[in-house]
Design brief:
The protein has about 180 residues and is α+β, with helices and mostly antiparallel strands. It is built from three helices and eight strands; from the N terminus they run H-E-E-H-E-H-E-E-E-E-E. The protein has two domains: about 5-90, RimP-like superfamily, N-terminal (GMP Synthetase, Chain A, domain 3), CATH 3.30.300.70; about 100-160, SH3 type barrels (Roll). The chain has helices spanning about 5-30, 60-80, 100-105, and strands spanning about 35-45, 45-55, 85-90, 110-120, 125-135, 135-140, 145-150, 155-160. The longest helix has 28 residues, at about 5-30.
Length: about 180
């Protein structure tokens, strides 16, 4: 395939994401819901438009189902995607991606995982407590290397890290 085709496709996908975001944001915000993220990509030979919604205290399956119907109707009426696709509406999940500075702000003082584009301290993966969120970079306290500053343009991927409880070592049902 020609490199120009891939450049055009990337540009088309970004335009679709921007159009969908502009269409969907007012509807969900009116209901007190946050549009956490919008993704559009080819998966297993089909295009998937994935809208991720959240609200303070979490979003219910009933809310997601209702918004799926409303958003499907809205997107059908405005037709921002010029080819066939599947619409998915979901919550960001427990180990949610951190996509914008406002997401990082929400997780200050909590455990996060940041994967960097370039190596820092001999690594590209850091897990620790998020300390600071600045205009040009973020800071976390990694248990192995201490405080790490990561520039925004060096963040490849970041997620909130939920600490799941460790089960006790008592064995149930043992005979004596």
């Amino acid at each position: 395939m020609c490199p120009l085709f891939f450049s055009w496709m990337h540009s088309a996908v970004q335009d679709i994401i921007q159009q969908v975001t502009a269409l969907v944001s007012p509807l969900v915000e009116e209901e007190g819901i946050e549009l956490w993220g919008v993704g559009f990509r080819s998966e297993a030979g089909r295009w998937v438009l994935r809208l991720t919604l959240d609200r303070e205290g979490g979003i219910s399956l009933d809310d997601l189902s209702r918004f799926h119907r409303q958003l499907n109707d809205l997107l059908d009426a405005h037709d921002p995607v010029p080819w066939r696709y599947t619409l998915e509406v979901s919550s960001p999940g427990i180990n949610r991606p951190l996509l914008r500075p406002s997401h990082y702000q929400r997780y200050l003082g909590k455990r996060v995982r940041i994967q960097t584009r370039q190596t820092q301290h001999g690594r590209r993966m850091f897990v620790g407590t998020l300390n600071q969120v600045g205009e040009t970079r973020v800071s976390l306290l990694d248990g192995d290397v201490g405080e790490v500053w990561v520039a925004w343009d060096n963040v490849l991927k970041a997620t909130a890290e939920h600490d799941f409880p460790v089960p006790s070592s008592k064995k149930k049902g043992t005979l004596r």
